[in-house]
Design a protein that fits this description.
With 379 residues, this protein is mainly beta. 6% of the residues lie in helices and 44% in strands. The chain is built from 4 helices and 31 strands. It has a 5-stranded mixed β-sheet, with no helix packed on it. Strands 2-3-4-5 form a 4-stranded antiparallel β-sheet, with no helix packed on it. The protein has a 4-stranded antiparallel β-sheet with strand order 6-7-8-9, with no helix packed on it. The chain is globular and about 50 Å long. The two termini are 25 Å apart. The N terminus and C terminus are likely disordered.
Length: 379
Amino acid sequence: MNSLVSTVRGLLTFSKSETSNYSPSDETKHDSKVLSVAWNQEWSGFIVGTNRGFNVYRCNPIIKKSIIRDPHESGFKIAEMLFLSNLFALVGNGHNSSEYPPNKVFFWDDHRNKCFCELEFKSEVLAVKLTRQHIVVVLKQNIYLYSFDNLKVHSLIATVMNPKGLCCVSHVETKSVLACPGFRMGQVQVHDLKRNIIKLIKAHDSDIACMTLTLDGSMLATASTKGTLIRVFNVLDGTLLQELRRGMEKAEIYSIAISWNLKWVAVSSDKGTLHVFRLRPDILSFNHVPSSSFIRGMLPNYLNDNERSFAQFSLPVSTKFIVGFGSEHTVLLVGIDGSFRRCRFDKEEGGQMVELEHKRFFSLQETDETMVVTNTTAT
């Protein structure tokens, strides 16, 4: 395992000959079905779990297929990638007779084209998150945190019933933050893993439905099962920084993303509209406001007013999309229907976004180019 971690940090080369024995005719023999989609830690690529295996795509500057793996017929319901490295975490699709059952996490080294390690649990695995320091495995009421270098349990975190497997982690090496549901409805617990500090935040009155951290772990955005409001909190002291209004009708929030520069929040839901919100320029200046003032309800007046979205884009209502941010005020969307979209918003005027790219990722040909990763540090 140690050698793998050092490899991930170094120079990795994926070429077509190394990463696939796939031929274009294979895709016509068996229809691939998307079981899951997940961005990597910096939105430079995404991984698709299918009923046959998994595919990996890069999307900078345009979307390209990089890796195709069909190791087993049952496929993977969870697939996660670590930046643009050779390492992937996989969870099987749930067939009892499968060699990839849903209570195990398999670690695939694509440099060696095989699974090299597995973690087994007594119940179904609902989510997996990867950082350079940790492996996070989410069960219904527990979260196991493993050290990446030796696969030993770092900590065991108890949560309220968590059927969606909600959990998010930071990806800047100088900080190590994990957020997950707390011990009662609407509560979030935030763990500063380096300082061994736990902060409990009363985020909503209803159950948490979606959450995300900024890449540096400084801010947390949450939505409840009502889906009408997105709240942004300061992770340091749990204070409410901004409240965003998605709509008045109940909605299922699929995905939330906060841009690298901490200026924008993107939200997708089952209402078929992508919303982009502007974060206030002075939002981080409230980091040093004593949390006691918020506890007493003495919020600045404008924090009591929720804000409408700055930019919007229409999406198919029937499809779940996860969101990420690209360059030059673009939002990236990957759909469970097998589609990829890149949209741009006007940073001054907002309004309706412009679609720059729309492709079916299963139909893409695998790139002949060599993918070289020289630095996977998030910025």
